Amino acid sequence: MAEETAPKKNMIGMADFLFSFCGEREPGNGEDSYAFALHENGALVGIFDGCGGSGAARYPGVQNRTGAYLASRATSAAWLHWFEGLEPEGEISVDDLKLQLLRNLRLCEKQGGESSGGLPGSRAKRLPTTAAAAVCRPCRGGLEVQLQWAGDSRVYWLDEDGLAQLTEDDLGGVDAMQELAEDRPLANAITLSRAFQIHSARRKFTRPGLLFAASDGCFGYLSTPMEFEYLLLQSLRESACAAEWERRMMEAVARVSGDDYTLCGISLGYGSFEELKSRLQRRTKLMERVYINGLDACTAEEKQQLWERYRENYYRLLCRP
User: Which of 4, 156, 239, 303 could crosslink 245 through cysteines, CB 3.0-4.6 Å?
Assistant: First the structure.
């Protein structure tokens, strides 16, 4: 739901609007969640993708919901509570976040009662979910973004130079093109079953852009990473306002996704939706000319060659654990 916001001083001019959508593969049983908040001292965007396979056990004390469903919601609530307690000029402590997160998950499990069903033995996990979030704050000369993540959900930046993946997936080092062809188990995700890590990194931005988080249902069912950027840009070009862009993005993702899909973000520094569209027009045309036109007719080898051309720019801002 796109929301216009009042100007925020020093956040590369202003926070233009928030945008988000959350779609369910099975109505009423979606296992994604998201969180956003906008304060005078900064903003939070984040998404949380409950791991439906390993978290398929059901809990009778909470409407017989799955562990994945409960985990994503307990985790999004923990991120919001933690963010709202941050001091305007204070340090951002991931340790404090993890403590809040574990408290939420344990309380949720306690209220859920004895679980049943799900995968057998070691394959089952207690309340498993991914997380991908960003806290952005004004700083001298621009905007500082602190990233937090676990799993294969992602935080991205999109500007006139194109789409950039900011967070590295916990999948053993495979790149975004390999991930589309392989189904690898997560090396790290939030769960009560074992120790996990919340990765943290910082980036500084000095010009306008779109900061957003997305679950793999948004990008994981396309044939190449380039198509995700074009989906965003094409939807933008066809839209007259932020709310229409949000709707068109969701419809485009829904047509290709085989999973729940969630995206949550913020436009920073453009001043208006019209200026955002104008500034990204050139990039849209470049994507069509170089990467998209004729893509359907490309062989797997030709698609790989296009990815190799696109890859360096796509990873220009990547943060590794």
Answer: 239
Domain membership of residue 321 (yes or no) is: no
Structure tokens at 290: 């170089």
- For residue 294, give the 3-state DSSP assignment: coil
CB neighbours (10 Å) of residue 102? Answer: 15
Tell me how many domains the chain contains. Answer: 1
Q: What is the pLDDT of residues 63-105, one digit of tens each?
A: 999 999 999 999 999 999 999 988 877 778 899 999 999 999 9
- CA dist., res. 78 & res. 186, Å (int): 22
Range of the domain at 74: 3-314
Find the CATH number of the domain harbouring 18: 3.60.40.10
Residue 251 lies in a domain: yes
Q: How far apart are CA 116 and CA 134, in angstroms?
A: 35
**For residues 127 and 193, what is the distance between their CA atoms, to the nearest angstrom?**
8
Task: Name the DSSP class of 190.
Answer: B
Q: Decide if 279 is inside a domain.
A: yes
Task: Provide the whole-model pTM.
Answer: 0.94
Edge-to-edge strand order for the sheet containing 199-205? Answer: 32-39, 42-49, 131-139, 142-150, 199-205
Spatial separation of the C-alpha atoms in residues 126 and 320, rounded to whole Å: 26
Nearest-5° Cα angle at 213, 271 to 122: 170
Whose CA is closest to 277, among 287, 267, 286? 267
Distances (CA, A) of 39 to 136, 200, 238, 271: 10, 21, 31, 18
What residue type is 307 in one-letter code? Answer: W
d(Cα 235, Cα 170) in Å, to the nearest integer? 29
Nearest Cα to 176, choosing from 223, 211, 213?
Answer: 223
Q: Are strands 162-165 and 154-159 parallel, antiparallel or unpaired?
A: antiparallel
- pLDDT of 23 > 90? The answer is yes
Count the neighbouring beta carbons within 10 Å of the beta carbon of residue 29: 13
Closest CA to 37 of 145, 136, 140, 144: 136
Q: Domain for residue 127, yes or no?
A: yes
Answer whether 2's CB lies under 8 Å from 134's CB. Answer: no
